[in-house]
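User: As part of a screening pipeline, I want to sanity-check one entry by hand. Below is the sequence and the SMILES for LL5AMS7Z. Please return the complex as structure tokens so I can compare it with the automated output.
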Amino acid sequence: MSRPKVYITKPIPAEVRAYLDQHCDCTQWEEAGVAPRERLLEAIQDVEGLLTHGSLVDDELLGHAPKLRAVSTISVGYNHFDLDAMRSREVIGLHTPYVLDDTVADLVLALMLSASRRIAELDALVKAGKWQKGSSTNEQEHFGMDVHHAKLGIIGMGRIGDAIAKRAVHGFGMELRYYNRSRRPEAEERYGAQYCDLEELLRESDFVVLMTPLTPKTVHYIRKEHFELMKPTAFFINASRGQTVDEAAMIEALQSGKIRGAGLDVFDVEPVQPDNPLLKMPNVVTLPHIGSATAQTRFDMAMLAARNLVEALNGSRPQHVVKELQSLLN
Ligand SMILES: NC(=O)C1=CN([C@@H]2O[C@H](COP(=O)(O)OP(=O)(O)OC[C@H]3O[C@@H](n4cnc5c(N)ncnc54)[C@H](OP(=O)(O)O)[C@@H]3O)[C@@H](O)[C@H]2O)C=CC1
Ligand SMILES: O=CC(=O)O
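Assistant: Here is the complex for your manual check:
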């Protein structure tokens, strides 16, 4: 039987490549970063499978790959899939849920701690030689806000939200509210979490964590009116996608003191533009989209994405098809 042709859009670990080579005829973008669009479109004319990370899979791309049957992304988020285009051309989309939950949750707690205890800001102060005698013990200038026993609100209580809840409630004794479109009774039982509407969550929480996927319904999900509901002492944490927030409204809320600070792993434009006002704010912690970025977790994600692709191409029933395209398996 002929082996399916696969294109890999970015360098992957040698062990993952070796696994793919056992099952497929692979070609790979060998340079740093991700294959640029033009080169990608040229490379996929013959392929049945695509292993990717963030490359836009839209009608134009699918038109360049008439034999394509499956696209597997090395990420849990798949907002770069045009689901209608994939459905109409019967191309299966696969992603990597679960393997990154703990790693991303660790980072969210780090953002909460870093913003509220001013870790990045005060690290910069110490390194700049500005730590003056007596200031840390006698003055309020280095005071932060407690995370332990504070009120946490999670918007998007899914797989990663659950891992955040576990840390926050069992580790830090936080009081938890959450908002989803559907209730999660098991989370309510496990964490004593209270389901509430978005407005109540925003009004009551000391930390608001946004963890929804980016979908047509969640573009600018958190806007001006939402920041206006939040406490002036609250911290806003976003590790979902930059476009789930109206970034201009968030900047205004931070500048005007409507909220106290923010911890951000994601931005409207990535890499974030050097003139973005967020980069000048000492009360905002900024990270370069590193939620899942540990060596082990990125390896596990790449291996899972490779296995997903092989399953989809060899005719067995793949486990991690994105939910909107599962009907293609019937
Ligand atoms: N910063 C980083 O590096 C990373 C970012 N991410 C981002 O995190 C996202 C979440 O991942 P994961 O937890 O695995 O996903 P899940 O699908 O498990 O959870 C998402 C949750 O969001 C809720 N949700 C979806 N749409 C809405 C809506 N319109 N309003 C309110 N709630 C909504 C869902 O509940 P319901 O359907 O009931 O509303 C669900 O509970 C990813 O899609 C990705 O964008 C993920 C990994 C790393
Ligand atoms: O942002 C990362 C992801 O896995 O989604």
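Points to compare against the pipeline: Residues 295-313 form the longest helix (19 residues). Residues 75-77, 100, 291-292 surround LL5AMS7Z (ligand 2) (CB under 6 Å).
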